[in-house]
């Protein structure tokens, strides 16, 4: 049963209590019992028994949850390494492209497209500007993404920023945290909430530059 997700095997939420775990086990045991379904592989019932043995024991369940988080973090680390490699390759390609670009082509200078309002907001002399306007600018600048393959729905992001993140608690199988608003909290609150995610499933991206702010 290597690599299997015990919660998915029992078709339950990661937040399931002991009563729900036992109920799910009984339901699946009846469904896949050889007397009722002779075509079912023995491995299916074996996997169900293993999953129930782990999740019905609080100590074993805690160890399993910790190992699950560790595996997600290792996958994320490998993903970051691949992303860095691709980023380096893309940069090399961009440098080659710009060097060979036709200087006589009808193109507009990037500097002609500079957002003057953005520069004004960065100017310390404008610190007396409306706080509401500044917050609106900052909040609307960032894109907030929850990567489903990494999210384990621990709920810490919802605790810190409930107007931005919500865990799908009504979803019985494999619930996830989702973003319901990118502008309901200030940037610092959203960043603090993202930092509490143990699997780094929350990504914050600068919409203007494309730069990944976090993680």
From TrEMBL:
Q: Which residues cross the membrane?
A: none
**KW Chaperone (keyword) present:** yes
Residue ranges annotated as compositionally biased, kind Basic and acidic residues, are 108-129
GO MF term (any one): protein-folding chaperone binding
**Keywords noted in UniProt:** Chaperone
Region feature Disordered, mapped onto this chain: 76-129
Identification of the protein by name: Chaperone protein DnaJ
Where do Polar residues bias regions lie?
84-93
One GO BP annotation is: ERAD pathway
InterPro entries from the entry?
DnaJ_domain (IPR001623), Hsp70_co-chaperone_J-domain (IPR051948), J_dom_sf (IPR036869)
Taxonomic lineage from the root: Archaea, Nitrososphaerota, Nitrososphaeria, Nitrososphaerales, Nitrososphaeraceae
- Natural source organism: Candidatus Nitrosocosmicus oleophilus
Q: Which residue numbers delimit the J domain?
A: 5-68
Keyword Cytoplasm in the entry? The reply is no
């Amino acid at each position: 049963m290597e690599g299997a997700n015990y919660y998915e095997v029992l078709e339950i939420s990661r937040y399931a209590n002991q009563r729900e775990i036992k109920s799910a086990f009984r339901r699946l045991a009846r469904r896949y019992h050889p007397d009722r379904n002779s075509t079912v592989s023995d491995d299916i019932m074996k996997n169900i028994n293993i999953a129930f043995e782990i999740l019905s024991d609080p100590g074993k369940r805690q160890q399993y949850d910790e190992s699950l988080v560790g595996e997600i973090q290792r996958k994320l680390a490998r993903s970051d390494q691949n992303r860095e490699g691709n980023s380096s390759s893309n940069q090399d390609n961009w440098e080659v492209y710009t060097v060979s670009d036709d200087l006589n082509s009808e193109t507009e200078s990037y500097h002609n497209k500079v957002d003057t309002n953005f520069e004004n907001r960065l100017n310390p002399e404008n610190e007396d500007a409306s706080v509401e306007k500044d917050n609106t600018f900052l909040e609307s600048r960032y894109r907030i993404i929850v990567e489903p393959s990494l999210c384990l729905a621990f709920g810490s992001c919802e605790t810190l920023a409930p107007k931005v993140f919500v865990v799908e608690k009504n979803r019985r199988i494999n619930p996830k945290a989702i973003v319901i608003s990118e502008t309901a909290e200030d940037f610092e609150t959203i960043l603090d909430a993202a930092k509490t995610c143990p699997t780094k499933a929350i990504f914050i991206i600068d919409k203007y530059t494309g730069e990944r702010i976090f993680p």
